[in-house]
TrEMBL record:
Name listed for the protein in its UniProt record: Oligopeptide transporter
Cellular component annotations (GO), alphabetically ordered: membrane
Record's subcellular location: Membrane
Pfam families per record: OPT
């Protein structure tokens, strides 16, 4: 498991701390450090173009401009459509979902391209323009939700659902969202099968192999000189965190505490298959939708427990993989496992104190916080979670 996301960080540290020879181009007699500084300055100046001067260049749908009144062309090539052929000049826009393409191996990029062509360029237009489930009443791709007659459900949906005045029959999804949910669920099934078939033997072997016995790996040979962080350190942190979660759920009335015995195993089971993909390709595999739908089915549409379950199921997986990636970074850089453990634990505690203090201060001092009509909108608490909770409630009743 390479964890490609660590490689540019290691390269940067080497540039800063090691004496490097000039880059091997005759016309570019620069040290690696000077080359890095020049590119950094260039990127800083260039970002003003799509980020401030011409925001349209963040994703420039040039094909759409050929015939601006053509609805089909706009749906297929527009930024708020399927975005085929759009030119992206904003690095943040390019990397916000799949990470840096520079770090993704070529075979993984080819897989992404094939999947994009099959599902985005072929499947979604075929489903939409054949008007399956009357999808043509809505845009081909959108983050909004609709009533069955095609009217938009606005942010007021939150208050309506909390008052139990709306059911799943009152909500309609757009074509892209529906296909996405089907693909996500199918992806997890394929991921589990792939992990068992392609990595099952290696996983069993690794569980029985120590660093000292892996003499063919120079990194393991060098790291075996350090003392490992004892397993009971990790177990102790887990037990303390689990007890704190129980107390938080019980006294904060977020969700019944015993459901932690469901959400924690869910997160544990998703770490291995999704972590293998991320460790080999640097492409993040999100468990957000799966945790969201599972929580909605369990809690019968009750919003707060559903959202709490979703956060635990998703965030546990994300942070665990982040810890593993950092441990691999220490493995590459030959940092003692005990030093790395202590450092990460200390930084985590400090960040918790700062984040909780800032959040508490904002809740006490800012009026109408998270009111979508005001200046302090909370984008991460969006309508989607409420919709899934409502759909989960109705589907559970239908199944029973």
């Amino acid at each position: 498991m390479i964890w490609p996301a660590n490689l540019p960080v290691i390269a940067l540290l080497r540039i800063i701390h090691e004496k490097q020879e000039s880059i091997g181009f005759r016309w570019l007699n620069l040290s690696r450090r000077n080359f890095f500084l020049i590119i950094t300055c260039f990127q800083t100046v260039f970002y003003w173009l799509p980020g401030y001067i011409m925001p349209v260049l963040s994703a420039f749908s040039w094909i759409c401009m050929i015939s601006s009144n053509n609805a089909i062309l706009g749906q297929l090539t527009g930024y708020n459509g399927l975005g085929m052929g759009s030119l992206v000049f904003n690095w943040k826009t390019l990397t916000q979902d799949l990470g840096s393409p520079v770090l993704v191996p070529r075979w993984a990029v080819n897989n992404l391209l094939i999947g994009f062509v099959i599902f985005i360029c072929l499947l979604i237009p075929a489903v939409y323009y054949s008007n399956v489930w009357n999808f043509q009443r809505m845009p081909i791709a959108t983050s909004l939700f609709f009533k069955p007659n095609g009217d938009i459900l606005t942010r007021d949906l939150k208050g309506i659902i909390l008052n139990s005045n709306i059911t799943a029959a009152d909500i309609t999804f757009d074509c892209t969202t529906v296909v996405t949910y089907y693909l996500v669920l199918g992806c997890f099934v394929a991921l589990v099968v792939h992990t068992i078939l392609y990595h099952g033997t290696d996983l069993l072997q690794q569980f029985r192999t120590s660093l000292e016995k892996r003499e063919n790996d120079i990194h393991c040979t060098l790291m075996s000189k350090y003392h490992e962080a004892p397993e009971w350190w990790y177990i102790s942190v887990f037990v303390i965190a689990f007890v704190l979660s129980v107390l938080s759920c019980y006294y904060g009335h977020f969700m019944p505490w015993y459901y932690l015995f469901i959400v924690v195993p869910f997160a544990i089971l998703t770490i291995l298959p999704t972590g293998i993909v991320e460790a080999k390709t640097s492409i993040p595999m999100s468990t957000l939708i799966a945790a969201q739908m599972l929580g909605a089915a369990i809690f019968d549409g009750n919003l707060i427990p559903t959202y709490t379950f979703m956060i635990y199921g998703y965030q546990l997986s994300v942070e665990s993989k982040s810890l593993i990636r950092n441990i691999k970074f220490g493995h590459f850089m030959k940092i003692s496992a005990r030093t790395l453990f202590a450092t990460q634990l200390l930084v985590t505690i400090i960040s918790i104190i700062i984040k909780y203090s800032v959040t508490s201060h904002l809740l006490k001092t800012v009026k109408n916080l998270c009111d979508h009509t005001g200046p302090w909108a909370c984008s991460r608490f969006d309508v989607q979670s409420i919709v899934i909770a409502t759909v989960g409630k109705q589907e559970k009743k239908r199944l029973w």
